[in-house]
Amino acid sequence: MNDYEELEAKGQTNIFDFLEVTPEKRSKTFVEGDSVKIRFYIDEIEFIEKNHPELLKVGKVTGKHHDFYVIQINEITLHVDGEKLILV
Question: Each residue of 20-79: pLDDT tens digit?
Fold first, then answer.
């Protein structure tokens, strides 16, 4: 019996339980007209605030192109992965 099986037999929570990604957790669907914000990584925020502060504003979903959502923020059109979007 390996360590993982031993922990599982004791009923202890392990890191694999937390890392398990199910389709419900992974797939977020947005529809045209939804108000969304882009979620940036903490190390990206300083750069975005200095150079492209308009990207921190709320945008609208205008469509979908392949696996990306088309987002309109003022005059800017972006293709963004659904994982990086937050419904507002």
Answer: 544 444 446 899 999 999 999 888 989 999 999 999 999 999 999 988 999 999 999 999
Q: Which CATH architecture has domain 3-87?
A: Roll (2.30)
- Give the separation between CA 4 and CA 14, rounded to whole angstroms: 8
> Which residue ranges make up each domain of the chain?
3-87
The letter for the amino acid at 72 is Q
How far is it, in rounded angstroms, from Cα 54 to Cα 10?
Answer: 51
First to last CA, the chain: 48
Task: List, as own/partner pairs, every contact residues 26-31 make where C-beta atoms lie below 8 angstroms and the sequence separation is at least 24, other chains included.
Answer: 26/83, 27/82, 28/82, 28/83, 28/85, 28/87, 29/82, 30/61, 30/69, 30/82, 30/85, 30/87, 31/61
Report the alpha-carbon distance of residue 34 to residue 86 in Å, rounded. 10
